[in-house]
Amino acid sequence: xxxxxxxxxxxxxxxxxxxxxxxxxxxxxxxxxxxxxxxxxxxxxxxxxxxxxxxxxxxxxxxxxxxxxxxxxxxxxxxxxxxxxxxxxxxxxxxxxxxxxxxxxxxxxxxxxxxxxx
Amino acid sequence: xxxxxxxxxxxxxxxxxxxxxxxxxxxxxxxxxxxxxxxxxxxxxxxxxxxxxxxxxxxxxxxxxxxxxxxxxxxxxxxxxxxxxxxxxxxxxxxxxxxxxxxxxxxxxxxxxxxxxxxxxxxxxxxxxxxxxxxxxxxxxxxxxxxxxxxxxxxxxxxxxxxxxxxxxxxxxxxxxxxxxxxxxxxxxxxxxxxxxxxxxxxxxxxxxxxxxxxxxxxxxxxxxxxxxxxxxxxxxxxxxxxxxxxxxxxxxxxxxxxxxxxxxxxxxxxxxxxxxxxxxxxxxxxxxxxxxxxxxxxxxxxxxxxxxxxxxxxxxxxxxxxxxxxxxxxxxxxxxxxxxxxxxxxxxxxxxxxxxxxxxxxxxxxxxxxxxxxxxxxxxxxxxxxxxxxxxxxxxxxxxxxxxxxxxxxxxxxxxxxxxxxxxxxxxxxxxxxxxxxxxxxxxxxxxxxxxxxxxxxxxxxxxxxxxxxxxxxxxxxxxxxxxxxxxxxxxxxxxxxxxxxxxxxxxxxxxxxxxxxxxxxxxxxxxxxxxxxxxxxxxxxxxxxxxxxxxxxxxxxxxxxxxxxxxxxxxxxxxxxxxxxxxxxxxxxxxx
Lengths: 118, 594
Prior knowledge:
The complex is a heterodimer of chains A (about 120) and B (about 600). Chain A has about 120 residues and is mainly α. Chain A has one domain. In chain A, about 70% of the residues lie in helices and about 0% in strands. The longest helix of chain A has about 55 residues, at about 1-60. The termini of chain A are far apart. By secondary structure, chain B is α+β, with helices and mostly antiparallel strands. Chain B folds into 2 domains: about 95-135 and about 145-235, Penicillin-binding protein 2a (Domain 2); about 240-575, DD-peptidase/beta-lactamase superfamily (Beta-lactamase). Chain B has helices at about 10-20, 20-70, 120-130, 135-145, 160-170, 190-195, 215, 220-225, 240-255, 315-325, 360-365, 370-380, 380-390, 415-425, 435-445, 470-485, 560-575, and strands spanning about 95, 100-115, 150-155, 175-180, 195-200, 205-210, 230-235, 260-265, 270-280, 310, 335, 340-345, 345-350, 355-360, 430, 500-510, 515-530, 535-540, 545-550, 550-555. In chain B, β8 and β9 form a beta hairpin. Chain B is elongated. Chains A and B meet through α1 and α2 of A and β2, α9 and α17 of B.
């Protein structure tokens, strides 16, 4: 009985040691991955910052204004002015479908005359 | 365990034979047994104590060893938990109210040289001088061949330049990474942003510190890693700022002015939507401050905040507001305007002669110095001073610019009755246009005190500190509207935006005392829409002249007002304000006297 317990506990120690080493190496691997990922994130952020700066530089109001002035024949962009506000009522909606096929007064008169003739 | 009997039969019999008491044997044996037991117990207890001591020593040894390890190793971030927040720029970005970039960082390189490592110093110097035309070849040769072990050549270089330096192939030329502050919009908002420079410099990095404006005022905030790189959100609107700068620049040229400033402020919150001061500079390449002469001639001078001027008739509104608030006068009260008003040897005159008396509304509309001076006499100097204090016109503005706290309005040394009279129409007290903007906003927004700010803030409901009553504010707004419809600021009318405002033309003081005849500060302090003001606009032109009606005109009505009107026409649509029809004639001042 005692021997069995000794054997079992030795086996348990071996198994636990194997598990601990395994976990340790996995953790180290994960940390290496994290490090490399973080370096990638850092590079990406740096690139992003450069792109954002470039975007802001290319979109600076001064440049856009000069560009819109240069391309005025094509774009016809004007500075926003109070007159440029419209109201919804000014939007042209499609004309309503005529309920009857006749619209102009001549036709109506003709129909009426026909009606009288009948 | 073998037990020894307490009364061994042999010894008992022997004792009995000798006639001794056999109980003594038993006691003797009990004693011996107890002694043995005691010894055993002692050994056991001692071994336990020893065990405990060993345990404690080991525990303390572990703790001590851990402490030693912690103390002697380099600190490192717990790597597994970092989510990437640790990778942020060392200085936060600055954005406008819509999140558009105003200032950001760019990674560049600094170029330095280690002459001992150089192979061909003369060639390196020649090639460097070719790449950077501002470097002097001979000086470089001297540096490279001299005793120096280390020298900086360029603080910031572009990637193209870096490649060209690489192509020289000189091992003694080295690069250090640098974070550089970039203002993508150039001159726009230059005075607000200020600029940044390098603090302590090392080979591998350099501190970026703000040198002026918001950059310096928020230096600690921008560099605080605890913010996690969150940008600083200003109240400026980039589009509005660009438009305001464009219009003001054009106006300054047309009016032949030396300088100009425009302030657009949210009338309720005090947020500065736009703050322009011309001439300006490029914060990417900040000019050196003037060491002699008038600092206001430098483009670094922020006229809106640092320039203290006598702002002229724009101050009459405060006198009128106080008179109304105190009940000294009502809008229809007739005020004596018979001129000239003498005070000792001093004479107060009006621009035109307005007859013997006119109503308070007309005093503002026609801008009568005599009328306001008479009102100020009735109000009295002490009360005037208290009122101007409440409007914030006697102390530096709390705006978040590093220049602001040092700029206090210039008050008269002794607040005499004459000072009271001149201050009532804006002479004898010099304040910055920003002071004026904040005071106007406080007066017209319903009477709540406004503190100018450059940081976007959520409007607080209610009124923290009341300056004048809602009713007085409404009356003042009506008067200011009338100044535009039928008074001195008639050019300010912009259809659909119900502009109200007050002009002010003040002669510039000579440095040696007295006033110039032909140099003025022309100011327009306006609000729109007048019936429910969203924004307050201050336009100030320094020494404007425009020829109209066959003569040179300098008054604000001819100079600052047209600029302001164009500014409103261009800017208001950008602020999402639709032109609207003004409320009917029921609005405004009831001209009933009592």
